[in-house]
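Quick question, first post here. What does this chain look like in 3D?
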Amino acid sequence: MSPPINADILEQLYNTILSRKNADPSTSYSAQLLAKGPHKTAQKFGEEAIECLIECATGNQAELIKESADVLYHLLVMWVSTDVSPQDVWAELHRREGTSGIIEKASRSIPS
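> Answer (accepted):
Ran it through. C-alpha cells below.
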C-alpha cells in the first residue's frame, strides 16, 4: 500500500534537494542543477513551466500531470538555490488567506 499523498511530500522533496546542495554533481541531478547557480535553476524552472503550459493547452492530462511534477521539483530546486524555505512560502500564503485576490494584487506596489 502506498503512503497517503499530501502536501508533506513537498517538504520531504525540499529536504532531499537541500541535502544534495553540497553533494557531488556527478552523483546527483539536484546537485548538478544547484551547482549551476540560481540563474540556471530559474531558467530550468521556466523551461519546465512552459512544457506544463503546452500540455495544458493541448489537453494532454497524463503529460500535464508529469510536467506538473517536474514544475514542482524545479520550483523546489530554485528555492534551495536562493535559500527560500517552504515555511517562507507557507507563511506568505497564510498571510494572504482570507484576502480577496483582487485586493491582494492591488496592494502590491507597482513600479512606475
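The CA atoms of residues 38 and 66 lie 23 Å apart.
Residues 38-58 form the longest helix (21 residues).
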